[in-house]
Protein backbone atom coordinates (compact mmCIF):
# COMPACT_ATOMS: atom_id res chain seq x y z
CA UNK A 1 0.00 0.00 0.00
CA UNK A 2 1.42 3.36 -1.03
CA UNK A 3 1.83 6.18 1.44
CA UNK A 4 2.40 9.00 -1.08
CA UNK A 5 0.05 10.28 -3.82
CA UNK A 6 -0.45 13.28 -6.03
CA UNK A 7 -3.77 14.02 -4.32
CA UNK A 8 -5.32 12.75 -1.09
CA UNK A 9 -9.11 13.16 -0.80
CA UNK A 10 -11.02 12.78 2.46
CA UNK A 11 -14.60 11.68 1.76
CA UNK A 12 -16.16 9.53 -0.98
CA UNK A 13 -19.41 11.46 -1.42
CA UNK A 14 -20.39 13.15 -4.71
CA UNK A 15 -17.77 15.90 -4.32
CA UNK A 16 -14.87 13.65 -3.36
CA UNK A 17 -15.67 10.85 -5.80
CA UNK A 18 -16.21 13.26 -8.70
CA UNK A 19 -12.93 14.99 -7.92
CA UNK A 20 -11.25 11.58 -7.99
CA UNK A 21 -12.95 10.74 -11.31
CA UNK A 22 -11.59 13.88 -12.94
CA UNK A 23 -8.10 13.51 -11.49
CA UNK A 24 -7.53 9.89 -12.48
CA UNK A 25 -8.85 10.72 -15.96
CA UNK A 26 -5.92 13.16 -16.13
CA UNK A 27 -3.46 10.47 -15.05
CA UNK A 28 -2.84 11.42 -11.41
CA UNK A 29 -2.30 9.07 -8.47
CA UNK A 30 -5.26 9.58 -6.15
CA UNK A 31 -6.36 7.98 -2.89
CA UNK A 32 -9.78 8.55 -1.32
CA UNK A 33 -10.22 7.94 2.41
CA UNK A 34 -13.80 7.12 3.43
CA UNK A 35 -15.05 6.72 7.00
CA UNK A 36 -17.74 4.13 6.21
CA UNK A 37 -17.15 0.44 5.72
CA UNK A 38 -17.23 -0.65 2.08
CA UNK A 39 -19.98 -3.24 2.59
CA UNK A 40 -22.19 -0.56 4.20
CA UNK A 41 -21.40 2.26 1.79
CA UNK A 42 -23.35 4.46 1.78
CA UNK A 43 -25.18 4.14 5.08
CA UNK A 44 -28.83 5.19 5.17
CA UNK A 45 -27.95 7.99 7.59
CA UNK A 46 -25.82 9.62 4.92
CA UNK A 47 -28.15 10.13 1.98
CA UNK A 48 -29.84 12.90 0.04
CA UNK A 49 -33.27 13.54 -1.42
CA UNK A 50 -31.30 13.19 -4.65
CA UNK A 51 -33.36 15.46 -6.85
CA UNK A 52 -31.38 16.85 -9.75
CA UNK A 53 -31.77 18.07 -13.33
CA UNK A 54 -30.67 16.82 -16.73
CA UNK A 55 -27.90 19.40 -16.91
CA UNK A 56 -26.10 17.63 -14.06
CA UNK A 57 -26.70 14.17 -15.53
CA UNK A 58 -25.28 15.20 -18.91
CA UNK A 59 -22.38 17.28 -17.59
CA UNK A 60 -21.04 14.44 -15.44
CA UNK A 61 -21.98 11.43 -17.55
CA UNK A 62 -24.36 9.89 -15.00
CA UNK A 63 -26.08 6.74 -16.33
CA UNK A 64 -29.83 6.20 -16.38
CA UNK A 65 -29.64 3.12 -14.20
CA UNK A 66 -29.10 5.17 -11.02
CA UNK A 67 -32.36 7.10 -11.64
CA UNK A 68 -35.46 6.07 -9.69
CA UNK A 69 -37.81 8.35 -11.62
CA UNK A 70 -37.54 10.98 -14.30
CA UNK A 71 -39.76 13.97 -13.55
CA UNK A 72 -41.51 16.58 -15.69
CA UNK A 73 -42.19 19.38 -13.22
CA UNK A 74 -41.23 21.14 -10.02
CA UNK A 75 -44.06 22.08 -7.65
CA UNK A 76 -43.84 24.73 -4.93
CA UNK A 77 -46.44 24.55 -2.17
CA UNK A 78 -47.44 26.87 0.65
CA UNK A 79 -50.06 26.07 3.29
CA UNK A 80 -53.00 26.85 0.95
CA UNK A 81 -51.53 27.53 -2.53
CA UNK A 82 -49.23 25.92 -5.04
CA UNK A 83 -47.26 26.79 -8.16
CA UNK A 84 -46.23 24.37 -10.90
CA UNK A 85 -43.22 24.91 -13.13
CA UNK A 86 -42.51 22.68 -16.12
CA UNK A 87 -38.95 21.51 -15.66
CA UNK A 88 -37.59 18.05 -16.36
CA UNK A 89 -35.49 16.41 -13.69
CA UNK A 90 -34.45 13.13 -12.13
CA UNK A 91 -34.82 11.57 -8.69
CA UNK A 92 -31.74 9.44 -8.06
CA UNK A 93 -31.33 6.31 -6.02
CA UNK A 94 -28.65 8.06 -4.02
CA UNK A 95 -26.88 4.92 -2.83
CA UNK A 96 -26.55 3.59 -6.38
CA UNK A 97 -25.40 7.01 -7.55
CA UNK A 98 -22.62 7.21 -4.96
CA UNK A 99 -21.51 3.64 -5.62
CA UNK A 100 -21.38 4.39 -9.35
CA UNK A 101 -19.05 7.36 -8.82
CA UNK A 102 -16.74 5.23 -6.67
CA UNK A 103 -16.69 2.33 -9.14
CA UNK A 104 -16.15 4.58 -12.15
CA UNK A 105 -13.15 6.33 -10.64
CA UNK A 106 -11.81 3.09 -9.18
CA UNK A 107 -11.97 1.41 -12.59
CA UNK A 108 -9.81 4.25 -13.94
CA UNK A 109 -7.19 3.83 -11.22
CA UNK A 110 -8.29 5.72 -8.09
CA UNK A 111 -7.51 3.94 -4.83
CA UNK A 112 -10.20 3.85 -2.12
CA UNK A 113 -9.58 3.04 1.51
CA UNK A 114 -12.81 2.40 3.41
CA UNK A 115 -13.04 2.24 7.19
CA UNK A 116 -10.58 5.13 7.12
CA UNK A 117 -11.65 8.02 9.36
CA UNK A 118 -9.51 11.09 8.68
CA UNK A 119 -8.61 12.83 11.93
CA UNK A 120 -6.03 15.57 11.35
CA UNK A 121 -3.60 17.20 8.93
CA UNK A 122 0.10 16.36 9.07
CA UNK A 123 1.99 19.66 9.10
CA UNK A 124 5.58 20.52 8.16
CA UNK A 125 6.89 24.10 8.19
CA UNK A 126 3.34 25.43 8.51
CA UNK A 127 2.01 23.52 5.49
CA UNK A 128 -0.17 20.43 5.25
CA UNK A 129 1.80 17.53 3.73
CA UNK A 130 -0.49 14.63 4.57
CA UNK A 131 -3.27 13.37 6.82
CA UNK A 132 -3.67 10.95 9.67
CA UNK A 133 -6.54 8.50 9.75
CA UNK A 134 -7.77 5.85 12.16
CA UNK A 135 -5.62 7.35 14.88
CA UNK A 136 -2.05 6.70 13.82
CA UNK A 137 -2.09 5.75 10.13
CA UNK A 138 -0.62 8.28 7.73
CA UNK A 139 -0.78 9.09 4.03
CA UNK A 140 1.02 11.89 2.19
CA UNK A 141 0.27 13.92 -0.92
CA UNK A 142 1.17 17.01 -2.89
CA UNK A 143 -2.41 18.30 -2.46
CA UNK A 144 -4.99 17.38 0.18
CA UNK A 145 -8.74 17.84 -0.32
CA UNK A 146 -11.45 17.81 2.38
CA UNK A 147 -14.76 16.48 1.03
CA UNK A 148 -16.19 15.25 4.33
CA UNK A 149 -19.12 17.65 4.55
CA UNK A 150 -19.99 19.29 7.88
CA UNK A 151 -17.53 17.15 9.87
CA UNK A 152 -14.64 18.89 8.03
CA UNK A 153 -11.77 17.55 10.20
CA UNK A 154 -9.06 18.98 7.97
CA UNK A 155 -10.70 22.27 7.00
CA UNK A 156 -11.58 23.07 10.61
CA UNK A 157 -8.08 22.38 11.94
CA UNK A 158 -6.57 24.45 9.13
CA UNK A 159 -8.97 27.28 10.06
CA UNK A 160 -10.52 27.26 6.59
CA UNK A 161 -14.17 26.88 7.65
CA UNK A 162 -16.25 27.79 10.68
CA UNK A 163 -19.53 25.90 10.37
CA UNK A 164 -21.77 27.66 12.87
CA UNK A 165 -24.60 25.99 14.76
CA UNK A 166 -27.12 28.71 13.95
CA UNK A 167 -26.65 27.87 10.27
CA UNK A 168 -26.91 24.10 10.76
CA UNK A 169 -29.67 22.41 8.76
CA UNK A 170 -30.84 18.92 9.71
CA UNK A 171 -33.03 16.70 7.60
CA UNK A 172 -35.00 13.46 7.75
CA UNK A 173 -36.53 11.49 4.90
CA UNK A 174 -38.57 8.31 4.52
CA UNK A 175 -39.59 6.50 1.37
CA UNK A 176 -43.27 5.56 1.33
CA UNK A 177 -45.72 3.55 -0.70
CA UNK A 178 -49.48 4.06 -0.76
CA UNK A 179 -49.28 7.86 -1.21
CA UNK A 180 -52.18 9.65 -2.89
CA UNK A 181 -50.10 11.31 -5.59
CA UNK A 182 -53.02 13.22 -7.18
CA UNK A 183 -55.12 14.21 -4.20
CA UNK A 184 -58.02 16.63 -4.93
CA UNK A 185 -57.18 20.09 -3.63
CA UNK A 186 -53.44 19.59 -4.13
CA UNK A 187 -51.16 19.71 -7.15
CA UNK A 188 -50.79 16.53 -9.19
CA UNK A 189 -47.43 15.11 -8.11
CA UNK A 190 -47.09 12.45 -10.78
CA UNK A 191 -43.56 12.74 -12.18
CA UNK A 192 -42.90 15.79 -10.01
CA UNK A 193 -40.55 17.06 -7.31
CA UNK A 194 -42.50 19.09 -4.76
CA UNK A 195 -41.04 21.52 -2.21
CA UNK A 196 -43.33 22.94 0.49
CA UNK A 197 -42.82 26.13 2.51
CA UNK A 198 -44.86 25.75 5.69
CA UNK A 199 -43.64 26.54 9.21
CA UNK A 200 -46.21 24.17 10.73
CA UNK A 201 -44.33 21.31 9.10
CA UNK A 202 -40.75 22.61 8.83
CA UNK A 203 -40.25 25.77 10.91
CA UNK A 204 -37.42 27.75 9.34
CA UNK A 205 -37.08 25.29 6.48
CA UNK A 206 -39.01 23.27 3.92
CA UNK A 207 -40.47 19.83 3.28
CA UNK A 208 -40.74 17.73 0.13
CA UNK A 209 -42.43 14.93 -1.77
CA UNK A 210 -40.42 13.50 -4.68
CA UNK A 211 -42.39 11.03 -6.78
CA UNK A 212 -40.45 7.80 -7.39
CA UNK A 213 -43.04 5.84 -9.41
CA UNK A 214 -46.61 4.56 -9.06
CA UNK A 215 -47.75 5.40 -5.50
CA UNK A 216 -44.25 5.74 -4.01
CA UNK A 217 -42.29 8.86 -3.09
CA UNK A 218 -39.50 10.25 -0.99
CA UNK A 219 -41.01 12.34 1.82
CA UNK A 220 -38.97 14.48 4.16
CA UNK A 221 -38.25 17.79 5.76
CA UNK A 222 -35.34 19.98 6.70
CA UNK A 223 -35.01 23.01 8.92
CA UNK A 224 -32.24 25.35 9.94
CA UNK A 225 -31.49 25.90 13.61
CA UNK A 226 -31.69 29.68 13.34
CA UNK A 227 -33.80 32.57 14.60
CA UNK A 228 -36.64 31.73 12.24
CA UNK A 229 -36.81 28.20 13.61
CA UNK A 230 -36.87 29.59 17.14
CA UNK A 231 -39.81 31.84 16.22
CA UNK A 232 -41.97 29.20 14.55
CA UNK A 233 -40.99 25.94 16.26
CA UNK A 234 -43.03 24.03 18.82
CA UNK A 235 -41.69 23.38 22.29
CA UNK A 236 -39.99 20.01 22.64
CA UNK A 237 -40.71 19.01 19.02
CA UNK A 238 -37.93 17.06 17.33
CA UNK A 239 -37.50 16.71 13.59
CA UNK A 240 -39.10 13.26 13.86
CA UNK A 241 -42.12 14.84 15.59
CA UNK A 242 -42.56 17.31 12.72
CA UNK A 243 -42.46 14.54 10.14
CA UNK A 244 -44.99 12.51 12.15
CA UNK A 245 -47.22 15.59 12.41
CA UNK A 246 -47.15 16.06 8.63
CA UNK A 247 -47.91 12.40 8.00
CA UNK A 248 -50.85 12.53 10.41
CA UNK A 249 -52.41 15.74 9.08
CA UNK A 250 -51.87 15.62 5.31
CA UNK A 251 -54.57 13.49 3.59
CA UNK A 252 -52.11 12.42 0.90
CA UNK A 253 -50.48 10.16 3.50
CA UNK A 254 -53.66 8.58 4.87
CA UNK A 255 -52.82 5.13 3.48
CA UNK A 256 -49.06 5.56 3.23
CA UNK A 257 -46.67 2.98 4.67
CA UNK A 258 -42.90 3.38 5.07
CA UNK A 259 -40.73 1.15 2.89
CA UNK A 260 -38.47 -0.98 5.05
CA UNK A 261 -34.85 0.09 5.10
CA UNK A 262 -35.54 3.42 3.38
CA UNK A 263 -35.07 5.95 6.17
CA UNK A 264 -32.41 8.60 5.73
CA UNK A 265 -30.95 11.44 7.79
CA UNK A 266 -28.49 14.16 6.92
CA UNK A 267 -27.22 17.63 7.69
CA UNK A 268 -25.69 20.63 5.98
CA UNK A 269 -24.92 24.28 6.66
CA UNK A 270 -26.49 27.29 5.04
CA UNK A 271 -23.97 30.10 5.34
CA UNK A 272 -21.32 32.00 3.43
CA UNK A 273 -18.44 29.68 2.44
CA UNK A 274 -15.56 31.69 3.91
CA UNK A 275 -12.13 30.51 2.74
CA UNK A 276 -11.87 27.71 0.21
CA UNK A 277 -8.18 26.84 0.14
CA UNK A 278 -4.72 27.37 1.55
CA UNK A 279 -1.26 25.97 0.81
CA UNK A 280 -1.59 22.43 -0.59
CA UNK A 281 -5.24 22.22 0.42
CA UNK A 282 -8.78 22.75 -0.92
CA UNK A 283 -12.20 22.26 0.69
CA UNK A 284 -15.03 21.05 -1.54
CA UNK A 285 -18.67 19.95 -1.43
CA UNK A 286 -20.67 20.60 1.74
CA UNK A 287 -17.47 21.46 3.61
CA UNK A 288 -17.84 24.88 1.92
CA UNK A 289 -21.63 24.97 1.61
CA UNK A 290 -23.63 26.38 -1.27
CA UNK A 291 -27.19 25.88 -2.47
CA UNK A 292 -29.87 27.40 -4.63
CA UNK A 293 -32.56 29.23 -2.61
CA UNK A 294 -35.51 27.31 -4.04
CA UNK A 295 -34.32 24.16 -5.79
CA UNK A 296 -31.45 23.33 -3.43
CA UNK A 297 -29.42 21.44 -6.07
CA UNK A 298 -26.89 20.25 -3.52
CA UNK A 299 -25.73 17.32 -5.64
CA UNK A 300 -24.84 19.53 -8.60
CA UNK A 301 -22.99 21.99 -6.37
CA UNK A 302 -20.92 19.20 -4.83
CA UNK A 303 -20.08 17.71 -8.22
CA UNK A 304 -19.15 21.11 -9.65
CA UNK A 305 -16.88 21.91 -6.72
CA UNK A 306 -15.13 18.54 -7.08
CA UNK A 307 -14.57 19.27 -10.77
CA UNK A 308 -13.26 22.77 -10.03
CA UNK A 309 -10.81 21.38 -7.47
CA UNK A 310 -9.59 18.72 -9.91
CA UNK A 311 -9.02 21.33 -12.63
CA UNK A 312 -7.14 23.48 -10.13
CA UNK A 313 -4.92 20.61 -8.98
CA UNK A 314 -4.17 19.77 -12.61
CA UNK A 315 -3.21 23.38 -13.38
CA UNK A 316 -0.45 23.12 -10.76
CA UNK A 317 0.66 19.48 -10.83
CA UNK A 318 1.14 19.30 -14.59
CA UNK A 319 3.97 21.84 -14.38
CA UNK A 320 7.29 20.66 -12.94
CA UNK A 321 8.68 23.01 -10.34
CA UNK A 322 5.39 24.77 -9.52
CA UNK A 323 4.37 24.28 -5.91
CA UNK A 324 0.70 24.04 -4.86
CA UNK A 325 0.88 27.17 -2.72
CA UNK A 326 -2.23 29.13 -1.79
CA UNK A 327 -1.38 31.64 -4.49
CA UNK A 328 -1.10 28.96 -7.17
CA UNK A 329 -4.35 27.32 -6.02
CA UNK A 330 -6.20 30.66 -6.24
CA UNK A 331 -7.82 29.52 -9.49
CA UNK A 332 -10.06 27.24 -7.38
CA UNK A 333 -11.58 30.28 -5.71
CA UNK A 334 -12.21 31.82 -9.13
CA UNK A 335 -13.80 28.65 -10.54
CA UNK A 336 -15.92 28.13 -7.42
CA UNK A 337 -17.44 31.60 -7.58
CA UNK A 338 -17.86 31.42 -11.35
CA UNK A 339 -19.17 27.88 -11.84
CA UNK A 340 -20.30 26.49 -8.47
CA UNK A 341 -21.96 29.44 -6.77
CA UNK A 342 -22.15 32.60 -8.87
CA UNK A 343 -23.84 35.45 -6.99
CA UNK A 344 -23.27 33.44 -3.80
CA UNK A 345 -23.93 36.36 -1.47
CA UNK A 346 -27.26 37.42 -2.98
CA UNK A 347 -28.44 33.79 -3.21
CA UNK A 348 -27.61 33.24 0.44
CA UNK A 349 -29.43 36.41 1.43
CA UNK A 350 -32.49 35.29 -0.53
CA UNK A 351 -32.38 31.89 1.15
CA UNK A 352 -32.21 33.43 4.62
CA UNK A 353 -34.96 35.93 3.82
CA UNK A 354 -37.21 33.22 2.39
CA UNK A 355 -37.18 31.20 5.61
CA UNK A 356 -38.01 34.28 7.68
CA UNK A 357 -41.29 34.89 5.84
CA UNK A 358 -44.61 33.89 7.40
CA UNK A 359 -46.97 31.21 6.11
CA UNK A 360 -49.29 33.94 4.86
CA UNK A 361 -46.44 35.43 2.86
CA UNK A 362 -45.71 32.02 1.37
CA UNK A 363 -49.31 31.89 0.12
CA UNK A 364 -48.88 35.32 -1.44
CA UNK A 365 -45.62 34.22 -3.04
CA UNK A 366 -47.35 31.30 -4.76
CA UNK A 367 -50.02 33.62 -6.14
CA UNK A 368 -47.35 36.06 -7.31
CA UNK A 369 -45.44 33.30 -9.09
CA UNK A 370 -48.57 32.34 -11.00
CA UNK A 371 -48.62 35.87 -12.47
CA UNK A 372 -44.90 36.12 -13.27
CA UNK A 373 -42.99 34.44 -16.06
CA UNK A 374 -40.79 31.46 -15.25
CA UNK A 375 -37.66 33.45 -16.04
CA UNK A 376 -38.22 35.64 -12.98
CA UNK A 377 -38.11 32.67 -10.63
CA UNK A 378 -35.15 31.09 -12.41
CA UNK A 379 -33.18 34.33 -12.26
CA UNK A 380 -34.07 34.91 -8.60
CA UNK A 381 -32.91 31.39 -7.78
CA UNK A 382 -29.56 32.28 -9.38
CA UNK A 383 -29.25 35.39 -7.21
CA UNK A 384 -30.25 38.03 -9.79
CA UNK A 385 -30.95 41.12 -7.67
CA UNK A 386 -33.56 42.57 -10.05
CA UNK A 387 -35.48 39.30 -10.17
CA UNK A 388 -35.41 39.06 -6.37
CA UNK A 389 -36.72 42.62 -6.19
CA UNK A 390 -39.64 41.62 -8.44
CA UNK A 391 -40.70 39.10 -5.80
CA UNK A 392 -40.70 41.68 -2.99
CA UNK A 393 -43.90 43.58 -2.13
CA UNK A 394 -44.70 46.60 0.03
CA UNK A 395 -45.92 44.32 2.80
CA UNK A 396 -42.37 42.96 3.08
CA UNK A 397 -40.93 46.16 4.56
CA UNK A 398 -41.22 44.95 8.21
CA UNK A 399 -39.74 41.59 7.18
CA UNK A 400 -36.82 43.31 5.44
CA UNK A 401 -36.24 45.50 8.50
CA UNK A 402 -36.22 42.46 10.75
CA UNK A 403 -33.86 40.69 8.37
CA UNK A 404 -31.50 43.69 8.28
CA UNK A 405 -31.43 43.80 12.09
CA UNK A 406 -30.73 40.07 12.25
CA UNK A 407 -27.82 40.45 9.85
CA UNK A 408 -26.45 43.40 11.81
CA UNK A 409 -26.65 41.43 15.05
CA UNK A 410 -24.79 38.53 13.42
CA UNK A 411 -22.10 40.85 12.06
CA UNK A 412 -21.62 42.52 15.45
CA UNK A 413 -21.47 39.13 17.14
CA UNK A 414 -18.78 37.99 14.73
CA UNK A 415 -16.75 41.16 15.32
CA UNK A 416 -16.96 40.82 19.11
CA UNK A 417 -16.00 37.14 19.04
Provide structural commentary.
This protein is an alpha/beta fold and about 425 residues long. It has three domains: about 5-50 and about 95-160 and about 275-340, 3-Layer(bba) Sandwich (FAD/NAD(P)-binding domain); about 170-270, D-Amino Acid Oxidase, Chain A, domain 2 (2-Layer Sandwich); about 345-415, no CATH class. The chain is built from 13 helices and 16 strands. The strands form two sheets. Strands 1, 2, 6, 7, 8, 9, 15 and 16 form an eight-stranded mixed β-sheet that branches. An eight-stranded mixed β-sheet has the order 3-5-4-11-12-13-10-14. The chain is globular and about 65 Å long. It comes from Natrinema zhouii. InterPro entries: Dggglyphlred_Halo, FAD-bd, FAD/NAD-bd_sf, Geranylgeranyl_reductase. This is NAD(P)/FAD-dependent oxidoreductase.
What is the CATH top level name of the largest domain?
Alpha Beta
Order of helices and strands: EHEEHEEHEEEEHEEEEHHEEEHHHHHHH
What structural class do helix, strand and pairing data support?
A: alpha/beta
The CATH homologous superfamily of the largest domain: FAD/NAD(P)-binding domain
Please report which band the strand proportion falls in: under 5%, 5-15%, 15-25%, 25-35%, 35-45% or over 45%.
Answer: 25-35%
Query: How many beta-strand segments?
Result: 16
Oligomeric description of these chains: single chain
Mean pLDDT: 88
The CATH architecture of the largest domain can be given as 3-Layer(bba) Sandwich
